[in-house]
Amino acid sequence: MNEKKLFSVSFFMNFVFSMLTTLLPLIVFNINESTEDINVVMVTFISSLLVARLFSIWNLLKAKTEIVLGCILFTVSCLILVIESNSMEWMFVGSLLFGLSIGLVPPAILVLLSGNKDKRAFNLGVYNSVVAIASIFSPIIGENIYHKNPHLLFLWWVIFASIMTIVALLLKKEKNNYESTTNYKASYNLKKVVSNTMFQISFIILLFSSISYGSIVAYLPVYFETLSLSIGIYYLFFWAGYILMQFVRRIRYSFYTVLCALFFISLVQLSLVLFEEAFIVYFFAWIYGLGYGSLFKVFYVEVGSFNTEEERSIGFSILSLISYIGVGIAPVFLIPFNIDWKMLFTGNLFYSIIAIIIFLFLRKKSMKDDI
C-alpha cells in the first residue's frame, strides 16, 4: 500500500476543509444576513457527520471504499459552492454532503495507516504533521482569496477536491492486507470503550469545552467582520498553540494539567467579552490553542493506553468527533445568550466554567492525581 497517496488525500481534504470551516459561517451569513441560517447549516453538517461516523464504526464498507466515496461527496459539495453559493437550499445540501465526507474519510485513512504494526507509529506521526501543515496556513489563505474573489476560491476547492478523488481512485486499485474487522468485533470493542470510566469523563469534559470551540467556528468570522479583524490570523495563532502542545513530550493526564488547560480555555472566552484590540485577541487565540491542544493531547495519551488496537481506534474516532459535536450543539446551547456578541461569549464562558466544575467533581474516579 502506498502511504503517500493516503497522506496526499489527507492534505488536500484538510487544506480545503480548514478554509471551509473558517469561511462557511460568513458564506452562509452573506446569503440572508441571518445567524439562524448559520445554525441550520452547522447542525446539518454535524448530524450528517455523526451518521457517517457511526456507519464507519460498524465496518459496513471497506476502508478504501469509504475513502473514495467520501472524496466524491466532498468534490460534489465544492462544486455546489461554485454553482449555487447564494442559495440556502443548496447550502443545506452541500453541508449534508460535507458532513458525510468528513465522517467517512479520516477514520478510514487512520485504519489503513495503522494496519502495518512495523510502520504504525511513523505513519501516524506523519499523518498528524500533514494535518497540522494543512490546517495552520489555509484559513488565512482562504480568507484573503475569499474577500477578493469568492468564485475563484470555490473553483480552486473543486480542483483540489478533484485531484484528491483521483488519488483515492488510484489507491483503491492497490492491494491491502490490513482490512479485517467484523461487525461483532466492532460491537464488542465499542461497549468496552464507552464503559471505561476515564473515557466517559474525558468525553464529558471535552464536550462542554468544545461548545466554546463550536461558537468560535460558527460566530467569530461574522463578529470579526464588525471589528475589522482577521479570522485567518486568529486561526493561525490558535493552531500554532495547538500544534506546539502536540510536541510537548512530558505532558500527561494529571490533575494540574487538565485544570490548567480548562482555565486557559475559560480565560480566552473572558477575553472575548472584555477586549476588542487586535493584539490582545490574537494573543489569546494562541492561549486558546495551548489549552485546547493540551486537553486533546492528554486524553489521546490515555486512550493510547487501551489494551487492543480496535479499542484504541474506536476511542480515537469518538474523541476526534467532539470538536465537531461542539460545532453542532453550540448554536442550541447558546440560544439563551444569543442577545448580542458580548452575551454570546459570556455563554461560552459559562459552559467553560461548567467543564471545570464537572472535572473537579469527577476527577477522583480515574485521575492520576499529582497532589
Q: What string, H for helix and E for strand, traces the elements in order?
A: HHHHHHHHHHHHHH
How much helicity do the residues have? over 70%
Into how many domains do the coordinates divide? 2
The gyration radius over C-alpha positions equals 20 Å
Q: Show unreliable segments.
A: 179-184, 367-371
Principal-axis shape equals: globular
CATH class of the largest domain: Mainly Alpha
CATH homologous superfamily descriptor of the largest domain: MFS general substrate transporter like domains
Overall SS class: mainly alpha
Estimate what percentage of residues fall within beta strands.
under 5%
Identify the CATH architecture of the largest domain: Up-down Bundle
* Largest β sheet strand count, sense and barrel closure: none
Mean pLDDT: 82
Distance between the termini: 48 Å
User: Count of helices?
Assistant: 14
Quantity of strands, as a count: 0
**CATH topology-level name of the largest domain:** Growth Hormone, Chain: A
